Amino acid sequence: MPQSLPDTTPPKRRFRWPTGMPQLAALLLVLLVDSLVAPHFWQVVLQDGRLFGSPIDILNRAAPVALLAIGMTLVIATGGIDLSVGAVMAIAGATTAAMTVAG
């Protein structure tokens, strides 16, 4: 059986974008377009001791989702992942909403 020579060419280096780069680029593009469409997009105003503005609204609306994401991350990290976790969170949210409306 003939012996083949080992391949001595160096391996080609390929540039790889970090994981999550397309999502980050899309977010930056959306923020850039919003800044161009609405010139006062980043403006935050203090009125009667409260903050108002687009960034504040975004943070207020993202806070509940962020809390759920942190909780789910802890569940996954501790190995307690279960398919019923999402259903339990949905039922808890619906119950809380019903109790809030009922007073």
Automatic annotation (TrEMBL):
Organism expressing this protein natively:
Escherichia coli
Q: Which top-level group of life is the source organism from? A: Bacteria
- The keyword Transmembrane helix is assigned to this record: yes
Q: Where in the cell is it found?
A: Cell inner membrane
Segments crossing the lipid bilayer: 24-46, 58-77
Q: What is this protein called?
A: ABC transporter permease
Q: Which membrane topology describes this protein?
A: Multi-pass membrane protein
Q: Which UniProt keywords apply?
A: Cell membrane, Membrane, Transmembrane, Transmembrane helix
Q: Which GO terms describe its cellular component?
A: plasma membrane
Q: Does the keyword Membrane apply?
A: yes
Main location as per UniProt? membrane
Q: Which family does it belong to?
A: Belongs to the binding-protein-dependent transport system permease family. AraH/RbsC subfamily.
Q: Its Gene Ontology molecular function terms? A: transmembrane transporter activity
Q: Name one Pfam family in it.
A: BPD_transp_2
